[in-house]
Amino acid sequence: MSQTTCFHCGLPLPESGVIQQEAFSFCCPGCLQAWQMIRSMGLNGYYLQRDTQAIGMQPQEIDPAALAPFDDPIFQEKWVQQGSDGRHEVNLILEGIHCAACVWLNEQVIRRVPGVEEVWINFATHRARVRWQPQQAALSQIIAAVRRIGYQAEPYDPSQREWQRHHHDRRLLTQLGVAAFGAGNVMFIAVALYAGYFQGIDGDTKQFFHWISLLLATPVLLYSGSLFVTAAWRGVRAGRLTMELPIALGAWVTYLYSVQVTVRGHGEVYFDSVTMFLFILLAGRFLEALARSKTASAMERLLNLQPRQAVVLRDGQALTVAVREVQVGETVLVKPGERVPIDGIILSGQTSVDESMLTGESLPVSRSVGDTLVCGSQNLDGAITLTVTRIGEETALARILRLVEQAQAARPPLQTLADRMAARFVGMVLFLALLTLWGWWGQDVGQAIENMVAVLIITCPCALGLAAPAAMITAMGSAARSGILIKSGETIERLAQVNQVVLDKTGVVTLGTPQVERLVPAAPYTEEQLLALAAAVERYSEHPLGRAIWRACVARGWQPLSGIEQVSNRPGHGLQALLHGADIRVGRALFALHSLPEAARMPPDDPDHPVTWSACSRDGQLVGWIGLADPPKANAAQVIQELQHLHLPALLLSGDRRAVVQRVGALTGIQAYISEVLPDDKEAEIARLQQSGLRVAMVGDGVNDAPALARADVAITVANASDLAVASADVILLNKDLQAVVHTFRLARQTLRIIRQNYLLSLCYNLLAIPLAMAGLVAPIFAAIAMPLSSLVVVGNALRLRRPLKF
């Protein structure tokens, strides 16, 4: 088979100018030179699935039989999700992830597996979500690719995650303990040696102390230091210079130099430096691990909301089964104090429900027959039964988790730039370390090695790599706890750049629960006939006005007409259906009464209390008018004022009549408004604002808002939005409080500010530390203290975003 892509970069070969070398084809001289360099260095694993003999080494052997169970259909039925498009998706837990470079390395390796389309790795939780074409790749191939470079990958099991984290932390703590024991004792010996240097010490005693220090330092380097050596070797095998490489080189060079001094019996040893900076680095890693677990705490709490079992009513018996065995349409019993295991509609009973972990609202809400409950909410009062509507990955909780995971794993432009800088930074550090060694070699070999080690240790590309992800993950975790779901880190950047907010009226600025205020039937119809006909059509509507008409009919004890069929939604206009062959329309007057002008037929308004008029017609003839009123939310005026303080002017955009929109604007303080706009007109208004140079955020909730949401720079939708609006949204507000909009903008701006602060801190640290280390003014011990402190400062600065958002 002829080669169609470049052997090095994987891009399609050009039509002309292809370079042939041995059995391989390259798209440009740069790729050829890179391949030659990689082969000459013997970097194993760089090309993975390709002909690895080209680089002179074989990848780590993986036993296919050990991975065969991952491809078993029974196993995949439990752990692998099969999409409607035929693609497979799996959640993996990765062991051995220590820094942002590890995440990058694993992503690159998994993407090289043929058939893999998308990879997200969450640095905070070490979870990877992989999507691939099963016809081109098997799950065992993906796991094998990860294991070849020394990491462990297993399907993610929530019940085992706590044990895995405990096991990882215990091992890290053990390594820290060994380093502490060795460093403490070696430092005692070093104090004696330093005292003898000034006060005198006989040669035999000094040599004895050197050998004791060697015995104590060796297990520290081999066991405690293996964390850095292993990570450095993984990167080298995959052709990646990671931040662990300078640490491993510094530790081993210092150790080997001290060993030869001990064997020769002449010179000064630096075992104290080796053990102490390994101890300090491990302490920093341990503290970073604790900080990362805090940033992911909101995610883990959401994950723990879903019960593992459910009580299902089958054949008159209450059976306790695993949640994954529950089927759509079955009846589930939820007792007081239990969490709802699925999404469903209440079939019987009445209760209060705590939805605080999903919506951020602290007060319980009342729920009764016909209301929807979501997985993870807690039943507080009475026993209820539910009809199951969604299970497994389709529940609201699962979708929320998926959005948060993808948001935390996504890399915004700022972070992508930092990752590239960090990768090049390590190469520069190695060059400066060699330059330091060369510059000091002629004066004092011991001092030259010590200064080189200081340069290797004090530099910190990890702080640069953590600057953006630490802030992004913390911000999205804080937002999730408050019922604000941000789909990606890039969204946070765009939110911070917004300078115009466009608000839909119904359900966003207003309560979204309008009430029928007036019924004006046309002769010979009665109010009951008018409302019963309109409600029969509107029972299929997602619009708040349509739901209000249905509720009004039921509340009055009137029975909606039966026999409605072929219901179709005309976004921005209304609903159309057939009733025994008759054309029934409910909505705008020009839509329902297409042959009659709206002004000629609409009832007169009360200037102080204008209502939204909805017309109902039968075969083009007026049945009557339904007047609805939807008051603004209680804090709408305050929210608009706070947006103005943030220099975010608000524009009210609505398809409602001018009088109604003007009244809402006056009550809330919104001076700019546009009324009587159709969905396409809303999208055109957003485009017009963008053409004037504004960055626009649109807040909407209905089907008719979807085009405008898709056009906006940032799309924000509220809790009870339509599915189409949610699909178009970048931010989903689970809390119905409009104050969440203000908090979203504040959080985005603060996050971007902290990211810039982190970059500045990291840059200033390295610009100051590297010259001092090269000049011999920083000992390796102090370098080891400064290096993890720079990372901890960055993480600590990001953790300021954990403060809860108050509504």
Task: Kindly describe this structure.
The protein is of the alpha+beta class. Helix content is 50%, strand content 18%. It contains 29 helices and 29 strands. Strand 28 (714-718), helix 27 (723-728) and strand 29 form a beta-alpha-beta unit.
Task: Please specify the SSE layout and strand pairing.
Layout: E1 19-21, E2 24-26, H1 29-41, H2 64-67, H3 73-79, E3 80-82, E4 88-95, H4 100-111, E5 116-122, E6 127-132, H5 139-148, E7 152-155, H6 158-199, H7 203-224, H8 226-237, H9 244-264, H10 271-295, H11 297-303, E8 309-314, E9 317-322, E10 331-334, E11 343-348, E12 351-354, H12 356-359, E13 365-367, E14 372-373, E15 378-379, E16 384-390, H13 396-409, H14 413-441, H15 445-458, H16 461-481, E17 484-486, H17 489-497, E18 500-504, H18 505-509, E19 515-521, H19 527-538, H20 544-555, E20 564-570, E21 574-579, E22 582-587, H21 589-592, H22 598-601, E23 612-618, E24 621-629, H23 636-645, E25 650-653, H24 658-668, E26 672-674, H25 679-691, E27 696-700, H26 706-711, E28 714-718, H27 723-728, E29 731-733, H28 739-774, H29 780-798
